[in-house]
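Why does residue order matter? Because the sequence determines the fold. Keep that principle in mind as you read this record.
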Amino acid sequence: MANQATAADDDESVLDISEQTNRPLDVALYQQRVKAWSPILDPWWTIAALLYFGVIMVPVGLKMNSLQEQAVELKITYDDFYAEDPICGINDTFNANRTCNLRFVVPEDLEPPILVYYELTNFHQNHRTYLKSFDPYQLYGRVGPREPVSERYCEPLNKLGDITLNPCGLIANTLFNDYFTLLQGNSANGQPLKLIEDGIAWQSDVELMYNQPDGFKYEECPTGQCDSSCCSGTNWSCAEPYVDKQGNCYRYFYPDDDTTQYLYETYPDIISPLDGVTNEHFIVWMKVATQPNFRKLYGWFDEPIAKGEEIVFQVNANFVVTRFQGSKSLLIAKTNTLGGKNPYLGSSFIGAGGFILGMGVLFAIKQWFWPRNLADPKFLHFKED
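Structure:
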């Protein structure tokens, strides 16, 4: 009977093999017969590995340190909670629009691209409540009723009274709203420098994550109508046309504008109604930082700058740092192959490689003078009865 029960439990006795559709193929990968190499890490193997990695890491660290000499970084901290008299401090005055000039003197010849960053310290974009506080569907253009989960994430910044915020959430509504204007600076060719503010965001974000609200439209005003008459009629939501830097006038339409506060209305000094959430400064801000001290790209120069050139920026300070006890800085940087200036990266490779190399030498000395044979039976201890 036992033999019959065992046979009945055997898959091959229940169904013919041809009918067993879920039976794994009889190949080495599925049947766990793949050949493998399982080296035994005896002392000499371990010593060789330590020496190998140590010999590689130390030169790599030295090369990294030499690359750091190619990186140039100019930095001015213009507001700091702990500074007695910051260059452009605004204390607790939100949207103060205080203007100050920041002067940089280039210490050596710089080749493009030359990057301009702003830096914040002690601002925790990586806090879980903060980094989840946005509605991706809204950022991509959806208007009207929203998902309950998205509304919960955006709390408490879904509405201001009866006015709906678009975009909602903590990230969008704490946008860094200081802005910088290049006042002075020439390229090595003697031509005035131009600060380029396009191409600073990830192209995938620009194309796949941000769109103006569904139903948004704009067009250039008819010739001679750069006034409120350009926005007349129900087809346009603007009260006055938008005038760009070239002096062109545009009228535009946002859906539900009477009950919604859009991004250009929250930050009129830095967000154009034509760009809205597709503004690249906004997209860069929405890419939250992983550390409380971080830099974000503001713009770049595509021309060389000669040694000794003076570059002057005007900063319009609006972003308050006293609430989070941090600081704000503006930087001009020339990066290297490994990115920005980082004196610790090469030193860490040298330190770790030196330690590994030293341990390999010590183990080699020990194994040479006081060897231990692999599988030496004298080190086996049997449990006595």
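The chain is about 25% helix and 20% strand.
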